[in-house]
Amino acid sequence: MGSMWGNTIKISVFGESHGPAVGAVIDGLPSGISLDTDVVAAMMARRAAAGKALATPRKEPDAVEILSGLFNGYTTGTPLTGMITNTNTRSGDYEKDKPRPGHADYTAQVRYDGFQDYRGGGHFSGRLTAPLVFAGAVCLQALAQLYPGVRIGSRITALGGVADASAVAPGDYAALTYADADFPVLDVKAGEAMKAAVACAREAGDSVGGVIEGYVTGLRAGVGDPIFDTMESRLSSLLFAVPAVKGVEFGDGFAMTGSKGSQMNDAFYMDGERVATRTNHNGGINGGITNGMPVVFRVAVKPTPSIALPQETVDMARRAPATLAVKGRHDPCIALRACPVIEAAAALCILDSLMGAEKWKRSADK
Amino acid sequence: MGSMWGNTIKISVFGESHGPAVGAVIDGLPSGISLDTDVVAAMMARRAAAGKALATPRKEPDAVEILSGLFNGYTTGTPLTGMITNTNTRSGDYEKDKPRPGHADYTAQVRYDGFQDYRGGGHFSGRLTAPLVFAGAVCLQALAQLYPGVRIGSRITALGGVADASAVAPGDYAALTYADADFPVLDVKAGEAMKAAVACAREAGDSVGGVIEGYVTGLRAGVGDPIFDTMESRLSSLLFAVPAVKGVEFGDGFAMTGSKGSQMNDAFYMDGERVATRTNHNGGINGGITNGMPVVFRVAVKPTPSIALPQETVDMARRAPATLAVKGRHDPCIALRACPVIEAAAALCILDSLMGAEKWKRSADK
Amino acid sequence: MGSMWGNTIKISVFGESHGPAVGAVIDGLPSGISLDTDVVAAMMARRAAAGKALATPRKEPDAVEILSGLFNGYTTGTPLTGMITNTNTRSGDYEKDKPRPGHADYTAQVRYDGFQDYRGGGHFSGRLTAPLVFAGAVCLQALAQLYPGVRIGSRITALGGVADASAVAPGDYAALTYADADFPVLDVKAGEAMKAAVACAREAGDSVGGVIEGYVTGLRAGVGDPIFDTMESRLSSLLFAVPAVKGVEFGDGFAMTGSKGSQMNDAFYMDGERVATRTNHNGGINGGITNGMPVVFRVAVKPTPSIALPQETVDMARRAPATLAVKGRHDPCIALRACPVIEAAAALCILDSLMGAEKWKRSADK
Amino acid sequence: MGSMWGNTIKISVFGESHGPAVGAVIDGLPSGISLDTDVVAAMMARRAAAGKALATPRKEPDAVEILSGLFNGYTTGTPLTGMITNTNTRSGDYEKDKPRPGHADYTAQVRYDGFQDYRGGGHFSGRLTAPLVFAGAVCLQALAQLYPGVRIGSRITALGGVADASAVAPGDYAALTYADADFPVLDVKAGEAMKAAVACAREAGDSVGGVIEGYVTGLRAGVGDPIFDTMESRLSSLLFAVPAVKGVEFGDGFAMTGSKGSQMNDAFYMDGERVATRTNHNGGINGGITNGMPVVFRVAVKPTPSIALPQETVDMARRAPATLAVKGRHDPCIALRACPVIEAAAALCILDSLMGAEKWKRSADK
Fold this sequence. Notes:
Four copies of one chain form a homotetramer.
Chain A: E1 4-5, E2 10-15, E3 21-27, H1 37-49, E4 64-68, E5 70-71, E6 74-75, E7 80-85, H2 105-111, H3 129-146, E8 151-159, E9 162-163, H4 188-203, E10 210-217, H5 231-239, E11 245-250, H6 261-264, E12 268-271, E13 274-277, E14 285-286, E15 289-290, E16 295-301, E17 311-315, E18 320-324, H7 335-365
Antiparallel strand pairs in A: 1-2, 2-3, 3-7, 4-7, 5-6, 8-9, 8-10, 10-16, 11-16, 12-13, 14-15, 17-18
């Protein structure tokens, strides 16, 4: 199965890259959320256009048609459905029998016994991040109206082998802004080098990967659940739903493993009336539950598997060696377009978690 | 909520560190699985004893009492329940009002409005990995009987700042053995240095972290699901359920982000009748679905937060600064005990995924 | 929440009566099911047209547009989405502030704080049975291809106070046919009286209810689960999802309560190589699991709440007494259209249960 | 699977009739609920003793041992586990190869390929209602503390062919009391006849069934969800989890089908500031959502299948005809013990629904 997710709100994502449409049904949204479709369109455009000149020439308008759940501009509380019609597809670009190395072509073929829609990766295409971004745009508006103060952002910390090593103090995340929202780096010089690396890879018919840092600020302490529903478990389950993501870490993540407990434990102190921590090595999460500091995580996005360079593969019909040079239009770096997708995944998770946490407070009210 | 997980089989974990018992209910196991309780006991002992002299002196027999679901030595197919009675607890060691930095004490206090069982971390204690290991021991036996050939292992690749950089070729994972199963390193010299680092940290009242690599071999291609139920999503949701895990990566993970697509795409070739890949940068997973190569992942385990060194914290009752030196018995490196837990998590995920995948083949049979 | 259901396959239903579209996403279908869209259309037409002259004049073509999950005529195994565009709506017929007695108008208003799409009952409209019938038509084809021999049918046993008391022997269910598929009664004379009762109610601006008997034949023994997932639990949860259903019973149901155990226990005997029961008072289900006899259940459908006769209600805006005479086009007896809906619900449940039961047999195979 | 249920709170039931213990894990309870174990014990005793002299001589103390989730007398918010040790079992009374007609023996044998614990019905035994009653006793206390005013009760409306036809006006349900809580009938004379019918059946080695009416008062309007999570769907899915239940109806249920819409539509009126209905034919539920009137439902409990009279069955080992006279201790009427079980099921459903409904109100608060 796999295409449904959530506890308090549930999302069901559907569609194939070259089918009639992709979309999402979101069940469990509160009624009365005012939905600004321009804001939705802007976030869709961010995903579609991100990286601008650097990205794939396949340009979809990505207009979202709302099929249900919206009435007079407000959510009804019953399932909200957004559909994005596929246009501008060139199915002839794909060869069914020669799976692209690094892509889902081969595994989908085995998984679905050859019945999968192989065109453009079908249900495994990066195109399926469009309904996720739609859902994220909805959740961001719900967050803004129900939990004002919560802010979600992301930035590029590495691309094409170039790192943006800018350190951000915990207290500075809430106010981060970028010179170029479509290319959110703090070290503009590093950003130029990144762009050069992407251009170089494109020139060579190759691709590069990157690291995206996501962050959530203004989130109160006490959100999340133990064991299987830790914030880390739930966020990572959504982040790994984004194609090409191969690693997720929270706070200092893998870097923590070489340090001492005395260095990595974030000391508590009273920040006025509020309990805070001096450092944020744990990324705002202790025991799976938010501690009131910014939630910070990093996502490893591998280089786009679809490249123009000739690659060794197999001809599955003839069960024989073959060579493949992927045609069609592909991003030399999907990490570029990953930012709004990562933010959307975070928005979905945070809204679901906050709504689920509301009920727990109820007991304390009595 | 949070303490239930699974699609085809479902597990429900319960208990607190210093309560009467911890345990797990596993629903959905096939009937007729022969359960060797000695094998269960051996895996429980591995978790309890791992690292031997290096680990915490709190020694629990960790005997599992089966309450239901087993009849004449075979699973009945109805819920299997294992209970592990808590003994040898010293609750006096814990101070409710001074949360341990890096631990769940503060977040649980907020999350549950002060009603949590704070003794020893309660439901957030590493003790809760005992029922997970029990479940893993059951799942491993089910795997052996239903899907012979599937093998799950783990090894330490870094500890206390010391790396075991041994490279393992994809074809060599299935046969990996270790000189010391309780301390599974390939580079024995590095292992000695790791042990020294742990001893040194213990001496200093401090703690260290580590990286565990888990692997699954003998797994057929075509297991897993798209979008939210990718193997990466599901494995990571379980791995982040293990206390102190702060990062998860698959294949080359974060290291992929600095490489080119042409380097990271694992080329397909015919290995006799079987499709295989030349390299395994993607860790045996493409598009969230297994490709028949070993599934390889790495888990970042942070340094144990409970340390003897004095730390800055707050007195929550008085809302004032405080100092805490954690008493009680604690591991200087929980990564040492993480191996059987990580294997258990993988076993649960793989069995659930394989059982869920069976039904899909049905259509092809007709 | 509420608009998602299922274990092995999951369905997500969306839409409002007077919104752009209604539809369903079905996740978890096996790949490779050949889908005959004419068969789908025929079942949609059965729902739309049932009772012909007797039913509402609102005639929708109810053409299903497949948005995803179908490729070259076969299911892909990824989410199958069917959308039915709403046309021919007359929203002016509805008064928001005067809830129709017996309908969801008032409860939806409270539940969604006034943000619900009140037109035509919105998400609570009988129109939402259209996506359910679509899903049922898909599941029936999957059943035919994966589990040949399973047959699902329904008949009217009471309507407008007139009963069709025809007894059907367990062995005769599999071959039941009706003179008029749109009005499936066995006692044709009773059928005429039923039609007269409906016509009479329509004439009077009133409505009538009925009882539908559903049955599943050719189903093997051993399907279903204990406790919360009994066949009765799961079938009833779907049957009560059909608007206006207020009662569900299995086998002799309520009539069993006045009998003795010695009368109601269905004696086992060997029917050749097969275990069978002499009688079928338990409706083919013992302990929640099928016993190989026909699964038989009855569903109470209340009289359509939307009637032309003036009724006492309240003006919710003014919080004052009011009178309502429902305008618009309404069925004098929705039980007439319930047959294909009940069959669809049963098909969904039986397919889900059979697919879920496949995996259990796996253990026995080894 | 089947032994887990719930949305906002989740329950996992385990155990076999003659295994070491039965029990339940309840995840998702709010923290801070004060749990009076005497109240739990009293409800357990009601289930065990109900009908007193009339019921089975198998007397279990049914003491509940709390394994987790309770600390200093309050729920912690993490999983609450109650275990009831099985004692006083006489396994020799059961013959594996001769399935009891009307019971789950045969279907469990097929379902689990012969590995089920057949002793006393195993996981299908009425004994499994003990953990359900434990869960109900917990939920009733949570309801009392979180949603004061909500009251759940039940009464016998028919037993052994004798009806208690007492009509109860909607406004009178909240104050219903019975002369004998263990035998809750309103018409005491009918009650005497019922008891006589039970005694007569026991004398004859036979059994009788009955109808239990459950009711929930003090429940606000707006609780429940559309389509698959209607109050009817969710309540019935739990009620059919109770062994021997073969029918469930809401309000006037099957009796509505012979009436007119004009008779069955419950007219709205202003009862002071509150919207109420003149009648309650719909049992307090419109469109699956509560309307503020008492929720009223009736449950058909078939005659106990285990009877002493000789019955025709098959010898499954020899695949041959056989005769069975059930030995052991069995209730001549399980309907007698069904009242606390039905109340427990309702309490679980209502608490889960109310907690789930809390979050929806959030949007209106802003």
